Amino acid sequence: MDLAPELSAVTPAEMRSTLGRFATGVVVLSVGGEHIHGMTANAFSSVSLDPPLVLCCIARTATMHRAITASGHFATSVLHADQEGSARHFADRTRPAGRAQFDAVDWVPGPHTGAPVLADALAWLECELTDVHEAGDHSVFIGRVLATGKGTGQAGLLFFNGAYGQVGTTEGP
């Protein structure tokens, strides 16, 4: 492995290619109300257990960026291995806008925010936006978790090297 000491500018394509080697879980972020919108994401993480905080990173040019900023809340549906179709749907820029984009999936409104939660998700969280940090061409949204739930599935959907995969266990939840 060549780790030359010289510094060079890393291009967006190099950054994407390199970080593609990092396996991540796959979620669908959603916002309810008048700004209803959904988006597939893999830049999602736990921040704190006490208080319960999570983060998601979203391009400032994305419709979801405007939706979260305007609504002040979001939900996250953690996808199970059989929900690759949902991941692809919410990553497709040609899908319908607004409420119609959710016609292709089963969902229920989150009890606190009304944001769509995908039925049969491996897990879900509803969050109130507490902080936004500018970071390059993205913003890091910090959400205080208002409610959570778990589905019955045991295998999670992963994204690695530009492709979907899965990881599972036969152990209990």
Give a description of the structure:
The protein is mainly β and 173 residues long. The protein has a single domain (24-168), classed as Pnp Oxidase, Chain A, CATH 2.30.110. The chain has 3 helices and 12 strands, in the order αβββββαβαββββββ. It has helices spanning 12-19, 63-71, 84-91, and strands at residues 24-25, 27-31, 37-41, 44-49, 52-59, 73-78, 107-109, 116-118, 123-135, 138-150, 155-160, 163-168. The strands form 3 sheets. It has a 7-stranded antiparallel β-sheet, with helices on both faces. Strand 9 and strand 10 (138-150) form a beta hairpin. It starts with 11 loop residues before the first helix and ends in a 5-residue tail after the last strand. The model has no long low-confidence stretch (mean pLDDT 91).
Work out the radius of gyration. 17 Å
**Total strand segments:** 12
Q: How many domains make up the 3D coordinates?
A: 1
Global shape: globular
User: What is the residue-averaged pLDDT?
Assistant: 91
Percentage of β-strand residues = 35-45%
The ordered H/E elements are HEEEEEHEHEEEEEE
CATH level-four homologous superfamily name: Electron Transport, Fmn-binding Protein, Chain A
Helix/strand class: mainly beta
Percent helix: 10-25%
CATH class type: Mainly Beta
| N-to-C span | 39 Å
CATH topology-level name:
Pnp Oxidase, Chain A
